[in-house]
Design goal:
The protein is an alpha+beta fold. The chain is about 55% helix and about 15% strand. It has a five-stranded antiparallel sheet with strand order 2-1-5-4-3, sandwiched between helices. It has a five-stranded mixed sheet with strand order 7-9-10-12-11. Helix 2 packs antiparallel against helix 5 and helix 6 packs antiparallel against helix 7. It holds the Pfam family HisKA. It is found in: Cell membrane.
Length: about 525
């Protein structure tokens, strides 16, 4: 059974290989077909014209010689017969006429001594008879014509080609003037037909050879033309894979060489542009990272001061002047917001630089979500629908960041209560965060994960930085997961987080990519 399956798989693979080659050489096939059709049309046309011309020439040459001989025999031999010849005389004269160089059958018809018709055939009584002559030819032969200056006799020579049992014949007839006998001639054209058939076969073979030659020529031409095109296709695929140093070897001065030069120039320009953009992007990331790092030192000091001010505000017997209390509260809130913004910026730069790492651990999703909600005092505003025991191997810190952003966004912009539901699938876990607010406008949905995007342009200043959902999405991606946003049919927005049950493979791949980038 295993051998049979292996043989079947091999056959399927072979068929796929054949079809892939046919698809790969479809342009080649079209060129060969076009060349073949052109050659076939030209060869068939030339062969047909040649056959028609030779056929007419052969038949006319034979026909003219036979008719000329027959006409001479009628004048020389039939013209010497008496006005009322006997059957023996007609028979003897017909035999003499048939023994000419052209070898045709002769039938002579005259008025006998008893006033009735007398017949004489070169082949005897069972040979060429009047019944073998078409009626139209007999009528034309016996029709008397006016004698003019160019006509020497009042009867003309008429001929006709007929086919009997697949054999072509030439039948001709004329009458001797002055009441002489009427003569008919039957000449077989079988030999000429065989010669023409041989010519047709020769022309057919020549046509076939021309078709084969055109196919070989088309193959050679297609190879010459398509090989540079194939190299261009391979180079374009390599360029699309990010190998921007790909170049084509240029040889010659034809259009394909110009195309190769154009490709090389475009590739060089693209490589330079990408390098410039990468340099600017790296400089921008370095600037943001350096700026965030430099801001952390003064922010640490400012945060310590604001904590002291916040403690003074919370003391019941505080000595703070009521006039400056609002300003102090504003400084405390804005300092906390600035500190969160710097942390978010540093996290974004780590994602952009590819230095973000996963620290994996076995996580009970119900416990993780409960800890996230409890740490932020959201227990009264969030309903959790999650069974204990749904385990996944994830990064707990990054999962907490994702959950905090999704639940916090639902509480801030949606409506309570916020419902968090967890379900397990075969190789993944799905966490849905739904609020009961007005939902997300349709024009905003495509941009909810964009950095620094805010739905209301008239309120650019808010508690959020516009980076939370973007960071949540990056943390999902580094796990090999995804976050989608939609509006629930029952009202409110729904954010769906899908993560793999085990992100170990993604963590190893990310570490390998980071090591390669550092190298």
């Amino acid at each position: 059974m295993t051998d049979a399956q292996g043989g079947f798989r091999g056959w399927v693979a072979a068929r796929k290989g054949v079809w892939s080659r046919l698809r790969f050489t479809s342009l080649r096939l079209r060129l060969v077909v076009v060349f073949g059709l052109v050659a076939l049309t030209a060869a068939v046309s030339a062969s047909g014209i040649a056959y028609w011309l030779n056929r007419e020439a052969v038949l006319r040459r034979t026909q003219d010689a036979v008719l000329r001989d027959f006409e001479q025999q009628m004048q020389i031999r039939a013209g010497l017969l008496p006005e009322q010849p006997t059957q023996d005389e007609l028979q003897h004269t017909a035999g003499q006429m048939a023994n000419s160089s052209q070898r045709f059958s002769v039938l002579l018809v005259a008025r006998g001594g008893d006033g009735g018709p007398a017949y004489g055939s070169s082949g005897g009584l069972d040979g060429f008879t009047l019944a073998d002559v078409p009626k139209s030819l007999r009528t034309a032969v016996n029709e008397k014509q006016q004698v003019g200056s160019s006509d020497r006799t009042e009867y003309r020579l008429y001929w006709q080609r007929v086919v009997e049992d697949g054999t072509p014949y030439l039948i001709a007839g004329t009458r001797v003037g002055g009441g002489g006998p009427t003569g008919y001639m039957l000449k077989s054209l079988e030999q000429e037909a065989k010669d023409l058939n041989s010519l047709a076969w020769s022309l057919g073979i020549a046509t076939g050879l021309a078709l084969i030659g055109s196919a070989l020529l088309a193959q050679a031409a297609a190879t010459t033309v398509l090989k540079p095109v194939q190299r261009l296709g391979v180079a374009a695929r390599r360029l699309g894979e990010g190998k921007l140093d790909t170049r084509l070897r240029v040889s010659g001065t034809d259009e394909l060489a110009d195309l190769s030069r154009t490709f090389n120039n475009a590739a060089a320009a693209l490589e330079k542009r990408v390098a410039d953009m990468a340099g600017r992007d790296e400089a921008s990331r370095r600037f943001v990272a350096d700026m965030s790092h430099e801001l952390r030192t003064p922010l640490t000091a400012i945060t310590a001061v604001t904590e002291v001010l916040e403690e003074e505000l919370e003391m019941e017997s505080g000595s703070m002047d009521p006039m400056i209390e609002p300003a102090v509260r504003l400084v405390v809130s804005e300092t906390r917001r600035l500190n969160d913004l710097v942390e978010n910026l540093m996290e974004v730069t780590r994602f952009d630089a590819g230095t973000a790492r996963l620290v994996l651990d076995d996580v009970d999703l119900a416990d993780q979500i409960t800890a996230c909600i409890d740490a932020r005092a959201w227990l009264d505003a969030v309903d959790l629908d999650a069974e204990r025991g749904i385990m996944a191997r994830l990064d707990p810190r990054r999962l907490d960041v994702i959950l905090a952003n999704l639940i916090g966004n639902a509480l801030k912009h949606g409506g309570s209560p916020v419902r968090v539901a967890v379900r397990a699938e075969d190789d993944s876990v799905v966490i849905a965060v739904r609020d009961h607010g007005p939902g997300i406008p349709e024009d905003v949905l495509p941009h909810v994960f964009d950095r620094f995007y805010k739905a209301s342009a008239s309120r650019p200043r808010s508690e959020g930085s516009g980076l939370g959902l973007s960071i949540a999405l990056e943390n999902a991606h580094i796990h090999g997961g995804e976050i989608t946003a939609a509006n629930s049919p029952e009202g409110g927005a729904v954010f769906t987080l899908r993560l793999p049950r085990d992100a170990s493979d993604l963590a190893l791949k990310a570490d390998d990519d980071a090591k390669k980038g550092e190298a």
